[in-house]
Amino acid sequence: MNIYYSIDDFKNVKNPVVTTGTFDGVHLGHQKIISRLKDFAANENGESVLLTFFPHPRMVLFPEDNDLKLLSNQAEKIELLEKYGIDHLIILPFTKEFSRLTSLEFIRNILVNKIKTKKLVIGYNHHFGRNREGSFNHLKEYGPLYGFDVEEISAQDIDQVEISSTKIRNALQTGDITTATKYLGHQYTLSGKVVGGKKLGKTIGYPTANISVEDKFKLIPTDGVYAVKVKHNGTTYNGMLNIGNNPTVDGKCRSVEVNIFNFDNDIYGDELTIYFIEHLRTEVKFANLDELKKQLAADKEKALLITTN
Questions:
Q1: pLDDT tens digits, residue range 278-293?
Q2: Domains of the chain (ranges plus CATH)?
Q3: Residue by residue, what is the 3-state secondary structure of the chain?
Q4: pLDDT in tens, 230-248
């Protein structure tokens, strides 16, 4: 996959078949659009092009919005788009100046003059341009004038139940990993560096790696214990993860801690990627550390059954 961080670097692509959007999470609905995009590119003897934006438009337009939580950071989105077979990825810097482009200016300046779009594929109810004024009907009107075709993927064509990033976020925020995975079409991931902690886990036989998630907009699922897979330096391990405040030891700050099974390496400062498999239970305050240890033993047994099957 070729990646362009400037629209001016995108040149000499044969019969570009294009889609555009934020593609947060690259969920099943997005994958349907990508699949059709690739089919059209093959039929047109062309190449698939996905135009997306960074930062997320809401970060620029509503910087005071502290509720914005994203399913994928830029690195995760790039990895997923490459996995699903996009030929060319354009990551357009989103600025307030760019947001003022009218829908016609976006069509003419970006889709036609810069990308030289042969065919445009968009998702259901897609809007673009200043104040989201552009729509499928707008594209159908201007497409013939500028020499490109437009195809809209309907909600029904994507799924009987309309898939949205909002539904996936809601599932993750209630611990419903099964629904989130179903709608994503892949496991939800969380990445971060291993940082120092209280080392309490090691004293009770369950050493944990404390993960610092630096992207403040990345959605961290609801508090609780999870069965997970953990990737470190290209190798994937089984494990269990706790998100929460560690109430048994009167913890004050929310943390993300993973116990990697059959693993005893020094990984401080290393990057880990967590793959959420299943929510095991809510976080509980136990009467003492012995009760906590008994519960952790049961959690590990359950997590092993889930992650090894």
A1: 999 998 887 788 888 8
A2: 2-165 (3.40.50.620), 189-307 (2.40.30.30)
A3: CEEECCHHHCCCCCCEEEEECCCCCCCHHHHHHHHHHHHHHHHCCCEEEEEEEECCHHHHHCCCCCCCCECCCHHHHHHHHHHCCCCEEEEEECCHHHHCCCHHHHHHHHHHHHCCCCEEEEECCCCECHHHCECHHHHHHHHHHHCCEEEEECHHHHCCCCCCHHHHHHHHCCCCHHHHHHHHCCCCEEEEEEECCCCHHHHCCCCCEEEECCCCCECCCCCEEEEEEEEECCEEEEEEEEEECCHHHCCCCCEEEEEECCCCCCCCCCEEEEEEEEEEECCCCCCCHHHHHHHHHHHHHHHHHHHCC
A4: 999 999 999 999 999 876 6
Token digits of residue 211: 């993960």
The 10s digit of each residue's pLDDT in 200-235 is 656 666 888 999 998 889 999 999 999 999 999 999
Cα separation, 101 vs 116, in Å, equals: 18
Bridge pairing between strands 47-54 and 88-93: parallel
Residue that the structure tokens 């033993």 belong to: 297
pTM (predicted TM-score):
0.88
